Structure formats: structure tokens, C-alpha cells
Amino acid sequence: MRDTRESRLLLVLLIAVAFALITVDIRGGEDSPVDGARQGAAAVFGPIENGVSSAVDPVGNAVSAIRDSGERHDRLAELEKENAALKARLGSDDRNSSRLKQLDKMLKIAGEGQYGIKGAQVIAIGAAQGFSWTITVDIGAHDGIQRDMTVLNGDGLVGRVTTVGPDTATVLLANDPDFTVGTRMEAGDELGFASGQGDRPLRVELLNGKADVKKGDRLVTFGSQADKPFVPGVPVGVVSRVDPSSGDLTRTLYVTPYVSFSKLDIVGIVVQAPKKDPRDTVLPAQPKPTPTPTVTVTVTPSGNALVGGEIKQEQ
User: Fold this and answer.
1) What gap in Å lies between CA 180 and CA 175, rounded to an integer?
2) Which of 58-62, 109-113, 170-174, 256-260 has the lowest average pLDDT?
3) What is the pLDDT of residue 92?
4) Cis peptide before 229 (omega within 30 of 0)
5) Buried b / exposed e across 97-133, counting CB within 10 Å, b at 16+?
6) Comparing 32-36, 105-109, 110-114, 294-298, which segment has the lowest mean pLDDT?
7) Which residues of 254-292 are buried (b: 16+ CB within 10 A; e: fewer)?
8) What pLDDT score does 50 carry?
9) Range 247-269 average pLDDT
10) Please, which residues bridge with residue 197 across strands?
11) Burial of 252 (0-12, 13-18, 19+ CB in 10 A)
12) Helix, strand or coil for residue 171?
């Protein structure tokens, strides 16, 4: 339609009529003279509006869902973060609890043997020295650690210090094939030398080829001159097998070590030797034997047998 003077006047007239109808409708309320027309319009345009609404609502719902999903995702991520932190704290608490137990056992051994020790944490296993059984600990020269110091934990002998850096030290473990320590049998003076065999029991050569030794006997360190590299009395292990005596000058034993070398965490380095040999005082208490029940059988003159307090007729 061309933009003429007549068209502009018609537009103004239509707007005026629309405002007049709106005013009459508002003032009339439920009795409005245009109510019927409004209802008719609703009947005509209502289905169209519903269709448009049905078409548009999924889009609006999707947008709302995306917004809600984002909020839920953020909350879920927050909860997962909180749970991860809680698990980390719980894990840390469990680990710290385990370390406290290890430390308590180690301090008990140190107290019984009168060893002056410095506690250390294992930070690496198997250093760069080929296939050696070694660990690296987190203390070194700055902490007073020196080469050829005895290393123990709450179970017994761990090894000896071989290399010292400013803040770390390398420990050769007692099960390493290059490791040798002088030993003494419990409650006796039978001396020998224990050598590592990797994941197999320690091999001990007793100096007395006719020594009376049996499975279950226990060994401790004999000690070195000037207490380096080994202080005396540190538990080594339990005899698991004894080779038959063949008349040789030495006798071979196989000893299961007290220490589990693949599960090392907290260790102690002996920086001060005891004033006197603790002998066997550091060994753990022997387990009490389980009593074996016995049955007493008494034969009566009548030919019946009394067994454990009950009378049974003999056949």
C-alpha cells in the first residue's frame, strides 16, 4: 500500500477506535459489550496459540533443562570434589594411623635396646644401583647421618647406610645378595654370618659345624667393631630350615627375616649405639603354646572303660 495522506488518516482512525474499545472493555468488566467478540476471537485463535505454544514450549523447556542441568552439574562436581577431599583426608588419616603404629613399634625396640635413632621415611625403593635391593630415605648428612650406620624398624634389622647425600641416604637392605651381617643365636653364643638372597630366606653360615640348632630358633645381630656398620642385639629372623650336619667346619641355616622388605615405610637410623649389648632383650615375646587336651582312660574290674568321665561298654 502506498504511503499517502489517506492511508495515514485511516491508520490514525483505527488506532483511535482500538483505544476506545479497550476503554469500554475495561470499564464494562464482565458485562463488557465486547466480551462476546473477545470470546469469539479466543475460540478462533485459541487452537493456533496452543499449537504455537506446543511448538515453542519444548524449546523453552530444553533451555530451562540445560540451565538446570548446568546447575546440577556444578553441584555434582562440587560434591564430587568434596567427596574426593574427604576420601583423601580419610586415606591420609589411615596412612598416618599406620605410620604411628610403625613408629610406636620402632620406638619400643629403640627403648629396649637403648639405641639412639633418627626416624626417616622411605621415599624410593630400588635406587639406580642396578638390581640391588635398596631404599632411599628422606634424611641425610644435614641430619647427622653417616655411612655404615645400622637401619632398623619396628620388626628388626632393615639394612645399613651405604651412601649419604645432603638430605637423603641410600640403605642396602638385608636381603640383598651383597649384604652380610654377623649374627648370634638366641640364648647362646653360636655365631655366624647371614647373607641376603633376594626374596628367599637369609642364608646363615654358623661357625660351629656341630651347633645344635633347630627350626624356630631366633637370631640377633652380633655387632661390629666400634658398632659400625651394625650395633648388637637387633632382631634378624627365625630359623626356617637347617641343613643336615655333614661334618664341615660350618653349618648352614635358612632364616626368615622379621622385616618385610617390600613393605617399608618408616625406618630408624641408629645414630648412637647402646652402652652395653642388649643381648636378647629386643626380641619379640615368644608366642604361648596352645595346650593340647588329653584323655585319661581307666579300666575298671567289671571290664568297662571310663573315658573322659563317661562309662563305655567294651566290645
Assistant:
1) 9
2) 58-62
3) 63
4) yes
5) eeeeebbeebeebbeebbbebbbbebeeeebeeeebb
6) 32-36
7) bbebbbebeebebbbbbbebbeebbebebbeeeeeeeee
8) 44
9) 91
10) 200
11) middle
12) strand
Burial of 196 (0-12, 13-18, 19+ CB in 10 A): buried
- For residue 305, count other CB atoms closer than 10 A to its CB: 14
User: In terms of Cα–Cα distance, which of 289, 298, 203, 180 is closest to 251?
Assistant: 203
List the grid coordinates of 1: 500500500
Cα–Cα–Cα angle for 262, 203, 160, rounded to 5 degrees: 55
Dihedral, CA of residue 26, residue 30, residue 35 and residue 40, to nearest 10: 130
Q: Does the pLDDT at position 18 exceed 70? A: no
Contacts of 164 (CB under 8 A, 6+ apart): 140, 141, 145, 146, 147, 170
Which cell numbers hold the place of 126?
Answer: 630400588
Average pLDDT, the chain: 78
Q: What is the pLDDT of residues 168-183, one digit of tens each?
A: 999 999 999 999 999 9
Rounded mean pLDDT of 221-232?
Answer: 95
124 neighbors 137 (Cβ within 8 angstroms): no
- Compare 232 and 18 and report the one with higher pLDDT: 232
Give Cβ neighbours of residue 207 (< 8 Å, ≥ 6 apart): 190, 191, 192, 249, 250
The answer to whether 223 and 233 are in contact (CB under 8 A) is yes
Q: Which three cell numbers stand for residue 238?
A: 627365625
24 or 107, which is more confident? 107
What is the chain's length?
315
